[in-house]
Amino acid sequence: MPTEKTELRRSLRARRNALAPEDQRLAADRLASKIIGTRLFLTSRRIACYLPNDGEIDTAPVIERIRRLRKTLYLPVISRLSHDRLWFAESKPKTRLVPNRFGIPEPAVKSRDLIRAQELDLILMPLVGFDDRGNRLGMGGGFYDRSLEFLRHRNHWRKPHLLGIAYDFQRVNGLTADPWDIPLQGVITDQTVYLY
Length: 196
Fold this sequence. Notes:
Elements: H1 4-17, H2 21-35, H3 39-42, E1 46-48, H4 60-68, E2 72-78, E3 86-90, E4 97-99, E5 105-107, E6 114-115, E7 122-125, E8 129-130, E9 136-137, H5 143-147, E10 161-166, E11 186-189, E12 193-195
Parallel strand pairs: 1-2, 1-7, 7-10, 10-11
Antiparallel strand pairs: 2-3, 3-6, 4-5, 8-9, 11-12
Helix pairs in contact: 2-4
């Protein structure tokens, strides 16, 4: 039986995938310009981003700016042991990428070269939908929530900082947060910077 979140995921993913290539490119450029103007981005050195999949907004212009500003780029890697958490690998222009079990490219590095989320300054996270309270609707796998659950036990949130990135039309009203959901500190879209 489809749930409200299932239906919302389906409709938002369809809308993402229906965008014309030119609209996707323009949105990605606008997104990158907005991100590099935020304080969280400017003060961060170790930044995790992701490679787009399933119509997600293109992160190539963001990644290019991370590298040009001499910040260190990390990409998520699905844990080889638990298979339900993310680790992060430094990614340079010549880093070899291999598809993971979902077909998403990730750095082909040795386990000893992976780091935990705690070692990052900023994570730019994918999402399917978001609301005005920092709630994030992901794909439903829970990878980011499980990988960031340590943040629920902190009284003073230091890092990593969490920003979602998306098309502005992915903003929805009042998502219901589950107990395991980790809220975002903001969402950057091709139109606006939302900080919570």
